[in-house]
């Protein structure tokens, strides 16, 4: 199996260095964004989620109608839609898109953002709910007979869906998180477990924790592993570092980020999530240990933005960044989520200059 490359799209142009402008939902921009990823050779794109962002299923449906091959990883928070209803919605889109849908399960790292949609469960409760939610969702996709489920959060009877996904046995489940609860629930359910970009040693420790949790859950097939980075690439290493410091200066000038993919300011999101989100805490801890780790991992961008999301950079020439990605492949990473600080322009550059180098270096290429 080769390495999977995932980008990230939004319905308007924004990042930590590009304050959001224009309509919150810009169909023309979205078409350009997904087409750029498809042309660049990405396998999928992530459609993010927050309590203020456009609905991800509808965004994916529109994007699927304007692409042919690209897959859609739709961020989804359990708890706001019944798992049976969500299963039917995802299965329906999977059919209409020709089997191009995956679910990125996020239990919720920000108490404040959960509350915007009326969810006041504590973090441990959210993970218990996610565990039960995924049990019901997967069973809705796969059960040939009507079933009942009576649990802590969901009580459903005589469930049988005629909406079945194209993908068999079911739609892939991706899972994000860095806490012990995340390892436990994601280790049980995830086809792909997603981590943010930490140094190699810490990433290897997290991979081991996820795999240990999967074995404890009785699995015989271990989750694949995704890691997220923000590449800053130049024609040479020197040019890339010059660009990296310019990006950092612009993040700082914007107070941590003038806009985010979810529609809120990164500065505000960072203050909310750093307190409760273990992933953010881990990125900040890596930044405190040093600016440069391993071959090319640079942490000041995470520190400047409050580590509100995947925010550590890989800095260097295409050859340096490709080699850094291959270092992660060597420790067991199978998937990379890559998005630039210049969201649209960086897609073409990554597809032209970096992705082919990584693919060419893989065994059997």
Automatic annotation (TrEMBL):
> Which keywords, in A-to-Z order, does the entry hold?
Flavoprotein, FMN, Monooxygenase, Oxidoreductase
Keyword Nuclease recorded: no
Question: GO molecular function, one example?
Answer: oxidoreductase activity
Q: Which Gene3D superfamilies match?
A: Luciferase-like domain
Cross-referenced InterPro entries, in alphabetical order? Luciferase-like_dom, Luciferase-like_sf, SsuD_RutA_monooxygenase
**What EC number(s) is this enzyme filed under?**
1.-.-.-
Q: Which domain of life is it from?
A: Bacteria
Pfam families referenced in this protein's UniProt entry, alphabetically: Bac_luciferase
According to the record, the signal peptide region is none
Q: Indicate whether Ligase appears among the record's keywords.
A: no
> What positions does the domain Luciferase-like occupy?
9-334
The record's section on PANTHER family has: ALKANESULFONATE MONOOXYGENASE, BLL6451 PROTEIN
- Recorded protein name is LLM class flavin-dependent oxidoreductase
Source species: Actinomycetospora aurantiaca
Could you read off the lineage of the organism from its UniProt record?
Bacteria, Bacillati, Actinomycetota, Actinomycetes, Pseudonocardiales
């Amino acid at each position: 199996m080769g390495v999977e490359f995932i980008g990230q799209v939004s319905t308007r142009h924004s990042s930590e260095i590009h304050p959001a402008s224009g309509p919150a939902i810009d169909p023309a921009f979205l078409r350009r964004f997904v087409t750029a990823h498809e042309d660049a050779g990405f396998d999928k794109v992530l459609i993010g989620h927050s309590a203020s962002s456009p609905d991800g299923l509808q965004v994916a449906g529109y994007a699927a109608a304007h692409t042919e091959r690209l897959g859609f990883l739709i961020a989804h928070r359990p708890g706001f839609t019944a798992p049976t209803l969500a299963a039917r919605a995802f299965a329906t889109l999977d059919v209409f898109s020709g089997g191009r849908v995956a679910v990125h399960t996020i239990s919720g790292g920000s108490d404040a953002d959960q509350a915007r949609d009326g969810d006041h469960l504590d973090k441990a409760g959210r993970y218990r709910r996610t565990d039960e939610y995924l049990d019901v969702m997967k069973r809705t996709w796969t059960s040939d007979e009507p079933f009942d489920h009576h649990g802590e959060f969901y009580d459903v009877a005589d469930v049988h869906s005629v909406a079945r996904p194209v993908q068999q046995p079911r739609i892939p489940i991706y899972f994000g998180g860095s806490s012990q609860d995340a390892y436990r629930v994601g280790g049980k359910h995830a086809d792909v477990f997603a981590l943010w970009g930490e140094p190699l040693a810490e990433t290897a420790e997290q991979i081991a924790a996820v795999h240990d949790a999967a074995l404890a859950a009785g699995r015989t097939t271990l989750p694949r592993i995704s890691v997220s980075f923000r590449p800053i690439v130049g024609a040479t290493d020197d040019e890339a570092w010059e660009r990296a410091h310019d990006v950092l200066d612009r993040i700082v000038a914007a107070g941590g980020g003038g806009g985010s993919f979810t529609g809120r300011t990164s500065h505000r999101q960072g203050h909310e999530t750093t307190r409760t989100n273990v992933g953010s805490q881990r990125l900040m801890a890596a930044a405190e240990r040093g600016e440069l780790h391993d071959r090319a991992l640079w942490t000041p961008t995470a520190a400047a933005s409050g580590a509100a999301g995947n925010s550590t950079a890989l800095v260097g020439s295409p050859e340096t960044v490709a080699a850094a990605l291959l270092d992660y492949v060597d420790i067991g990473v199978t998937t990379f989520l890559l998005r630039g600080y210049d969201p649209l322009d960086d897609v073409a550059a990554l597809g032209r200059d970096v992705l082919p180098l990584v693919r060419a270096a893989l065994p059997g290429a």
